[in-house]
Design goal:
- This protein is mainly beta.
- The protein contains 6 helices and 16 strands.
- The strands form 2 sheets. Strands 1, 2, 3, 4, 5, 6, 7 and 8 form an 8-stranded mixed β-sheet that branches. It has a 5-stranded mixed barrel with strand order 9-11-12-14-13.
């Protein structure tokens, strides 16, 4: 009975010191960020962003420092949280934003919820899904799944979710984050098919905060990638190549991790599962490849074109 909502928070936060508890559902989750520097003595310099929503709209929530190792893996997309003794501050202007599955949802972009271990010490409770009541008015998680046949018509940097059967996965590679930097991004290439096109999805998968999944992507697994970005090969190339790359809010799931995920109710996911039931596993295994060097985008096939 003493709950507040996100819309009310945005209107009253400057005049309040203590805020009533919030009941929200997680709609998006960023990768875990490490911001430690040698000269700064911090025990656990971690941070993670979430987009949370209630019946009034959606707002960013930031998990700080030692709360990250304690809570990050428990806070999944779809999880319902009861938050008390949190802080509110103006939004950080340079953070990335996921594309919401529900384009009609109101976004409160001026402020964000901060969960800290002190000043004040936040109280976090996870509400089991079976105890969530319809009258709370919490939005469902919505997705933007596309099929391979739809991909070529999408614009550069369009955000989407995909599901496919993995037919190729390359070795793990790395690229410098910046020139002359000591920091590297880890990534690997994968192909996945969904039966709607002769062409596979070409996926550039950067290591997210899910090492257990990233390392176990194998041919013949059902792969779900959310919040992917469409990359059109913008060079003047008549046989242009379209691929997808992960964003800061991407989540990756493989066979064994799908149970209980909100996307299992999506119509395009159900259609894909129906298609896989009509396929011969032995035939598909013959077409699969693992490992090796994968140069992409591919160079032209002759020096003249080059």
């Amino acid at each position: 009975s003493r709950l507040t909502n996100l819309g009310h928070l945005e209107m009253t936060w400057r005049s309040s010191v203590h805020f009533h508890p919030l009941l929200v559902r997680i709609l998006h989750k960023s990768r875990l960020k490490y911001y430690g520097k040698p000269e700064k003595k911090m025990d656990m310099p971690y941070q993670a962003y979430f987009e949370v929503a209630d019946g009034s709209g959606m707002m960013s929530m930031v998990l700080w420092n030692s709360l990250c190792p304690e809570w990050y893996h428990s806070m999944k997309v779809g999880t319902v949280l009861l938050l008390a003794k949190y802080a509110i501050k103006s939004s950080y202007p340079f953070k990335t934003h996921p594309t919401p599955g529900d384009s009609q949802m109101k976004r409160f972009a001026t402020i964000e919820i901060c969960l800290n271990v002190r000043d004040p010490p936040t109280e976090i409770s996870i509400i089991p899904e079976e105890m969530v009541k319809p009258e709370w008015g919490l939005p469902e998680v919505k997705y933007r799944f596309i099929t391979r046949s739809e991909l070529d018509d999408l614009p550069h940097n369009h955000s989407c979710d995909v599901i496919g059967l993995v037919t190729f996965v390359g070795r793990t590679e790395r690229a410098r984050k910046r020139e002359h930097s000591e920091d590297f991004w880890l990534y690997r290439w994968a192909h996945a098919i969904d039966g709607t096109s002769d062409q596979p999805f070409i996926l550039e998968l950067f290591a997210t905060s899910q090492p257990d999944v990233f390392e176990r992507i194998h041919p013949m697994t059902y792969l779900v990638c959310t919040q992917m970005r469409v990359m059109q090969d913008l060079a003047e190339n008549p046989s242009r190549t379209v691929y997808l790359t992960t964003s800061n809010e991407s989540q990756i799931f493989i066979t064994g991790w799908h149970k209980g995920q909100p996307y299992t109710k999506d119509a395009k996911v159900k259609n894909f599962i129906q298609w896989t039931k009509s396929q011969s596993e032995a035939d598909q295994i013959k077409k699969t490849v693992i490992g090796g060097y994968y140069p992409f985008p591919r160079p032209p096939d002759s020096f003249l074109k080059y």
